[in-house]
Amino acid sequence: MFLSPYFNKAQQLVSVSAQQASEFAKGVAQDFNPIHDVDAKKFCVPGDLLFALVLGQYGLSQKMTFRFEGMVGSGVNLVFPDAVGDSFAILDDKDKQYLSVSRSGESTLCEVQTESFVRSYVAFSGLNFTHVLVPLMKQHGMMINPARPLVIYESMSFDLHTLDFDSIALNLVEQNLAIDGKRGDVTLKFELHCGDKLVGTGEKTLVLSGLRPLEAQSMDEMVARYEARRIGYQQAD
Known about the structure:
It is a single chain. The protein has helices at about 20-25, 45-60, 110-125, 125-140, 215-235, and strands at about 10, 15, 60-70, 80, 85-90, 95-110, 140-145, 150-160, 170-180, 185-195, 195-210, 210-215. It is an alpha+beta fold. It has one domain: Beta Barrel (Porin). It has a ten-stranded antiparallel beta sheet with strand order 1-2-4-5-6-3-8-11-10-9. The protein starts with 7 loop residues before the first strand and ends with a helix. It holds the Pfam family DUF3581.
């Protein structure tokens, strides 16, 4: 299982160290959000990794929805029951809920297919910041706090017409930012293709916190820092 380096498991308890989470964010999802740095003051495990762990444990279903309800810290013991129904939640060993999942349709436990799906799905995150979120913020004349850039997942969902595919590619087809005070709600809609064939659709929603009026220089510096982190990681790898 390609996820093995990124989590620890003892019976039904799954935990992720800050180092494991950071490596997944940067190495698999190409996500350089500072909140996933090992030494981040407000560290959290990437939502993409929680998503991947659920698929790795319970398989890929045609229709799935994930709602993120809490930020998972380093070493938190998450309970992954051996068996779950069509709707279930991931809680820690103190009964705090972090994720709710619903699923329907056909399912597959094929590791090769699930890995291909996960890698393509989470790699889409690596494009979010500079290619999607920054242009959206500029369009609305707003920006997140450059000193503490906080972008977190609220939900993910997808609807696959078929499980008859060996690889997928995600194409963004719609993007929207709704601003309410210092909060921004981002909706990203995409299509999933296998070659020339449309195999499904999906949606991600994210929350931008601490919004403020756009300052071009601060925004440019924030983007430059993000790109420098990405390049630095790739050169060191």
